[in-house]
Amino acid sequence: MMRNKICWNDGWRFFRKDQPAADTLAAGEAVTLPHTWNAKDSQDGGNDYYRGTCWYAKRFAKPELAAGEQLWLEFEGAAMTAEVYLNGQKLARHEGGYSTFRVELTPLLAEGDNLLTVSVDNGKNRTVYPQKADFTFYGGLYRDVNLLTVPAAHFCLSYHGGPGVKVTPTVDLDARSASVTVEAWVDGPAEQVTFSTAGQTIEAPVQDGCAKAVFAIENVRLWDSVEDPYLYTVTASLDSGDSISARYGCRTIGFDADKGFLLNGRPYRLCGAARHQDRQGLGSALTKKEHEEDAALLREMGANTVRLAHYQHAQYFYDLCDENGLIAWAEIPYITEHMPEGRQNTLDQMTELVVQNYNHPSIVCWGLSNEITGSGKTDDLVANHELLNDLCHRLDPTRPTTMAHVFMLDPNDPLVFLPDIRSYNLYYGWYVGDWDQNDRWFDEFHAAHPDAVIGLSEYGADANPAYQNGRPEKGDWSEEYQAVYHEHMLKMWSERPYIWAMHCWNMFDFGADGRDEGGKPGQNQKGLVTFDRKTKKDAFYIYKAYLSKEPFVHICGSRYVDRPEEITEIKVYSNQPEVALYVDSRLFAKKAGDKVFKFQVPITGSHTIRAEAGDCQSVILVHHVDAPNPDYVKPGSEIVNWFDREDEIVREGYFSIKDSMGEIKAHPQAGPALAELLAPLQAKAAAAYGDVAKNIQIPESMQRMMDQMSVEATLKQMGKLVTPAIVHEINGALNRIAK
Ligand code: GCU
Q1: Atom of ligand 1 at shortest range from CA of 406
Q2: Nearest C-alpha to atom 11 of ligand 1 is from which residue?
């Protein structure tokens, strides 16, 4: 008989504390999966969401089973560690909150009534990743649970939660043909497997539990990312009636240090964003609807790649990547801090990630870790990575390994080159320094390592769409600053074809209960789209201008309604060559341009501003006001207009805060003077940040970068500690020292 798979999400009972029993079931909260117990308490800041062990229970009658038939339970996601009990007896334990695992119930089934209980734990420990990271570790049975009935002879269910079938297409681009190797694993008595795909059928003998067939496909239709994400389907069936199918794509991928990513033999520039699997109000308990909306927003922006951070995502989302042509970076949550006792867990999570997702054409690399040296680098950490690297090569010789390195890791460190390819997380222009330091970083890296494939796995700036600033400044959390920052980053990318992929951090604001910034506790607001997916911030549209073929025009600043300036900048993003701007229905100006169009518009009262490009249009309203609207400014932030004019700072022939740290340090008088002026500030900063400041080793390459920063930028870096008065005092002292 055919296998039978039913969704088993209904009729559960949830218990916050103790293991339920048959007679206490009624006391549990009735819940339907997917479910997380952190949907609400993880989105209010304070880092106080519930972490611990909770229980799920379900009573059920033993289903009819024919001779030899087996009953299995399939969990698509139980975060983070689960134990499964049937009628009080422990059946299984699974460590890792992001992968599928299955349990056979048959041996312990009672006639009539059965009680299934599952403990799920998201508590702190030193063995199961993730334990330290900038996102909420939601707990719960947050993905589907399915009940499977299979005949005695069936495709394997117990191999690391895998699909039981493995498809390896090999494409010959010149011949426009593909050779597709299909392997299937069988449990129980079976002589042969019947495979069929692309209109062909092959019967293969089962040997040692495995059957294999090789198909030749002529005039193959390639899987060509968002251009043509064509999917074939292979089915495998047994005489017992069991049958499974898998989709696959025929493509070639390549990684070149100069040309970047290659798809089907040609350079194919990847630009997109990272995605966390959570949603405002739902936490991690997403349904197909939310997954579909996220994939659609990525495609609407024109992204052709997505970094599925920082863990294995739902099968359904990888399926959507296959269907939409989104090139995916997949990774395990080996993140931020290495835990020696967590080694086996990294190997287990990586095995499941690769075995469960091998068939997806959208996945092009396996991420070993994220910023793992952020808390220090040890030999044990390196050894753990060597093991993971070898494991991936054994499980999947068709894809490279990668790592997302933290920006403090010296680009000459051997660990940078342990994986086959790599990317860096750079936050110049947000956490540190200025955005053009990203450009210099890449130019220096590529010059020093011309044979190393390099990408940008994270970069971003927080923005709350409520905050508006006509003179955007780093750290003001304004929508405008985020937009100009990404304008720069995309320009940098467009000028450097060797960058194999750009993954903006992040496509969506996401849950980080440890944060309480920018007016939205519990959120990281680097998203191009808000946590509820309701607002596309202006920065979304500069990506669309670079990436989307769909004609559009977008006036920025729709939320910057009250404007104190007499002449206001109206900025328009578009992928069209010309934009016409109308003020109160009168043509104000027409401009030809490339993606970014700026108009300086005098405003006196209330105005309707309309941009037109081809058949597209965008409209905003603005009011001239006498004083800035206080609602537009992040509470507690000093938007320090330190100086209005350059000539107040620079005294010809003398030093000033406009000079670089390195230049001043090198001068016999200015160096010591500046050191003396900064000492009290650095002491205060160290006191404020505890011993973290002391034990951060600043690598030589980073020190070089910091020396290139101006004194002014360095002082801004120190945030609220540095008041305008202090800046004036330092600049005054430097102005007295001749160069
Ligand atoms: C790090 C980290 C992310 C984090 C991001 C940020 O690079 O990898 O998980 O969210 O920085 O600080 O926003």
Answers
A1: 7
A2: 134
